[in-house]
Structure prediction request, 184 residues.
Amino acid sequence: MWRNRILVTAALAVSTLAACSSNQPTTSPGTVTLRLLVPQGQELCDIVYNCQGPTHVFIGKESGDWLPFNPGPCGGGVPCSTCLPPGCAAGACQFIGVAVGQPVTSVQITWDGSYVDWATCGSGAACYIPRFERPGRYVARLCATPGATDAGGATCTQTGPEECVETTFELPGPTLVEVPLRQN
Prediction:
């Protein structure tokens, strides 16, 4: 009798999980490229600390409700599928403990609808689960900070506050959506 209860409970758990995840796309619905158009002659820069700089592009269903993206090799968290750190990719971890100024020459992202859900694994380590959004209308916020790097590229001197613009777009979308930093 206990064996039947366990089997029924397991079957209900599997069918519940299947029902909950069946609405979740498992592949990309397509792509769209978002590009911030910077006024000619405008200098932009970032301060990158511990291989993480500011986020230039945010995407969501509505303004202010932004999707979480893959944190990359230095962003904390691990893939939930392995619960193991991804390791340092192409020297990305060489800047641990170092702040570096970087000129920003372009702000562009090709988005395939991917984002991550956060969970825990192992002994409570933060981990992420890759997901995909459905086709539809989204909002993008593209940002950049006016400033210049010194001759050695070690510092970024900001000459103004971060500037951002928002636009709506479709996923999948046209090949390229260009958004001017300032509307003239």
